[in-house]
Design a protein that fits this description.
3 strands; BolA; BolA/IbaG_stress_morph_reg; BolA-like_sf; BolA family transcriptional regulator
Length: about 90
């Protein structure tokens, strides 16, 4: 799985999400160490705890979290939180 596919899955499952996914370190050739980092912004995170927000992302990625993705660092924001951060 590549960064574009991770972004596509997140954006397809979380309403109005914008995801930016990167590789925080060089993956090995066999993808046995597939580490990703993601910044996800969505109004769907409004009123949710951080744990609930992260669970939404895990749910969006489904089985890939146990098969194709070894680790996922994530930062989740509502649009307002993201604007304030910038």
């Amino acid at each position: 799985m590549d960064t574009d596919e991770v972004e596509r899955r997140i954006e397809a499952e979380i309403p109005d999400a914008e995801a930016e996914v990167t590789l925080p370190r060089v993956p090995d050739e066999d993808h046995e160490d597939a580490h990703f980092a993601a910044v996800i912004v969505s109004p769907a995170f409004e009123g949710k705890t951080l744990v609930q927000q992260h669970q939404m992302v895990y749910d969006a990625l489904g089985d890939a979290m146990t098969t194709e993705i070894h680790a996922l660092e994530m930062q989740t924001y509502t649009p307002e939180e993201y604007r304030e951060r910038s």
